[in-house]
């Protein structure tokens, strides 16, 4: 398979695959053991015991009870080889065809194995300080990684040789490193045993972390880290418990965020990150010219939007998508439900002159060169002006419409369709151009001019 040369194959005698080495370290006599496979396909297991370990090579077991043991070197040699390491308690690091389990009594070094399994026995209750973490390293090629409750996997190929690494039972978490190429990771833990659960995704550094448990009680925290992955698919699996949150940080380029009732996506050049089933998702898009696209559910949803932050809340499930620092926001309420939107021009960037277009189908508020917010399909919309000289333009629809003027704003009722309330704008243009019966009603003298065009009765 191209992974080993002929000189490496002759490291071990065909008639003897185990060798003892004594090494000097700080004036102590320390023992290292070398264990080798054959030139064929081997299955090797290393199992820790109270006094040493068992080594099984293709079903032939040997018990090692040597005192002073510090290191076990296991080499699969050539062929398609697999190895299992059991009960060597300590952190594990696995890469393509190599591995290291740094046990609390001795360490096990692995080389030339296409398949590697490291087990942490789930029935062994160890002190909280005992390291139960693992590291899975990818290659410069395209790797796939999988993170679950009780086990984690990394697989791919190196120089034409496929590899598969799995760690099982490492309760404190696993760190994954894509290490180059176009790498993908699927995260699918069960959030129920260790609530709350938070996923942090940084698209700029391509470093993400998943934390489960109460941070105030470190003994009950599981932490997983995902680095250098171009694609990430994260499942909450919360089974109705509203205790799962996710935060995104965008890149310095142009990002697009999609917020749906049960899933969210952050997409940019070279990356694709998706979460499924998280109750609360917050995306800070940061630099670049960024876009957010939000979709309401079939329930009664609430949109609260401004140039700085937009939140779409699913009621009564109380799931929410929060977006910060997006230049363009498009919110769709087309799945049914009595949805409402509240839009404001208030922004940390200061005063400016804003323009509102209001129709029966959508309301669009924008400031040229600064931001755009569009709410599509919402049954009730309220738009409020705060600073600058702001203009509202209202368009009628065929059929019956009524514009009600108040001291601080107007309300446009598109009978049988939607209702738009406009507050504190400096001037309002009401256009009755599409036929039907357009009525105008005044309940209090408006403190701003209203310019009517087309046909209005009243």
What does it look like?
- By secondary structure, the protein is mainly β.
- It has three domains: 1-181, no CATH class; 182-211 and 220-289, no CATH class; 298-458, no CATH class.
- The chain is 1% helix and 53% strand.
- The protein is built from one helix and 43 strands.
- The strands form two sheets. It has a 22-stranded mixed β-sheet, with no helix packed on it.
- A hairpin with a 3-residue loop joins strand 39 and strand 40 (418-423).
- The chain is rod-shaped.
- The termini are far apart.
- Mean pLDDT is 87; it is low at 1-16, 22-29 and 123-130.
What's the quick description here?
The chain contains one helix and 43 strands. The chain is mainly β.
Task: Give the SSE layout.
Blueprint: H1 6-9, E1 18-25, E2 28-36, E3 43-48, E4 53-57, E5 60-64, E6 69-75, E7 82-86, E8 92-95, E9 98-102, E10 107-111, E11 115-119, E12 133-137, E13 144-147, E14 151-158, E15 161-168, E16 173-177, E17 184-187, E18 197-202, E19 207-212, E20 222-227, E21 231-235, E22 244-249, E23 256-259, E24 263-268, E25 271-276, E26 280-284, E27 291-295, E28 300-305, E29 309-315, E30 319-324, E31 328-332, E32 340-344, E33 355-358, E34 362-367, E35 371-376, E36 380-384, E37 391-395, E38 401-405, E39 409-414, E40 418-423, E41 427-432, E42 438-442, E43 450-454
Parallel strand pairs: 2-6, 3-7, 6-10, 7-11, 8-12, 11-15, 12-16, 13-17, 16-20, 17-21, 18-22, 21-25, 22-26, 23-27, 26-30, 27-31, 28-32, 31-35, 32-36, 33-37, 36-40, 37-41, 38-42, 41-43
Antiparallel strand pairs: 1-2, 3-4, 4-5, 8-9, 9-10, 13-14, 14-15, 18-19, 19-20, 23-24, 24-25, 28-29, 29-30, 33-34, 34-35, 38-39, 39-40
């Amino acid at each position: 398979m191209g992974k080993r040369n002929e000189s490496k194959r002759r490291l071990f005698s065909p008639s003897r695959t185990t060798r003892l080495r004594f090494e000097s370290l700080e004036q102590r006599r320390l023992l290292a053991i070398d264990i080798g496979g054959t030139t064929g396909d081997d299955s090797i297991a290393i199992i820790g015991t109270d006094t040493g370990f068992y080594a099984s090579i293709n079903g032939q077991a040997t018990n090692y009870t040597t005192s002073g043991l510090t290191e076990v070197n296991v080499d699969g040699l050539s062929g398609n080889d697999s190895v299992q390491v059991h009960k060597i308690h300590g952190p594990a690091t696995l890469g393509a065809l190599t591995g290291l389990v740094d046990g609390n009594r001795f360490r096990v070094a692995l080389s030339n194995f296409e398949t590697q399994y490291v087990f942490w026995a789930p029935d062994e209750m160890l002190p909280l300080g005992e390291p139960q973490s693992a590291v899975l390293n990818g290659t410069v090629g395209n790797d796939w990684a999988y993170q679950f409750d009780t086990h984690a996997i990394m697989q791919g190929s190196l120089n034409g040789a496929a590899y598969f690494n799995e760690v099982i039972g490492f309760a404190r978490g696993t760190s994954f490193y894509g290490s180059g190429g176009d790498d993908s990771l699927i995260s699918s833990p069960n959030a129920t045993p260790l609530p709350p659960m938070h996923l942090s995704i940084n698209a700029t550094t391509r470093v993400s972390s998943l934390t489960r448990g109460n941070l105030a009680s470190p003994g009950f925290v599981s932490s997983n880290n995902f680095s250098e992955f171009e694609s990430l698919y994260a499942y909450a699996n919360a089974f109705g418990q509203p205790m799962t949150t996710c935060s995104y940080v965008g890149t310095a380029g142009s990002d697009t965020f999609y917020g749906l009732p049960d899933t969210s996506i952050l997409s940019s050049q070279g990356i694709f990150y998706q979460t499924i089933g998280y109750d609360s998702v917050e995306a800070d898009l940061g630099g670049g010219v960024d876009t957010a696209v939000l979709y309401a559910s079939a329930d009664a949803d609430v949109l609260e939007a401004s140039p700085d932050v937009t939140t779409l809340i699913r009621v009564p499930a109380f799931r929410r998508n929060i977006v910060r620092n997006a230049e363009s926001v498009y919110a769709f309420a087309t799945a049914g439900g009595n949805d409402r939107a509240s839009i404001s021009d208030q922004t940390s960037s200061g005063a400016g002159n804003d323009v509102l277009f209001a129709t029966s189908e959508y309301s669009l508020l924008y400031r040229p060169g600064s931001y755009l917010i569009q709410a599509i399909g919402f049954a009730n919309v309220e738009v409020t002006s705060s600073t600058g000289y702001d203009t509202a333009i209202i368009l009628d629809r065929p059929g019956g419409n009524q514009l009600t003027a108040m001291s601080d704003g107007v309300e446009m009722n598109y009978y049988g369709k939607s209702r738009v309330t406009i507050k504190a704008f400096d001037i309002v243009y009401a256009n009755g151009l599409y036929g039907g019966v357009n009525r105008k009603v005044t309940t209090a003298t408006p403190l701003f001019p209203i310019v009517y065009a087309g046909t209005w009765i009243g």
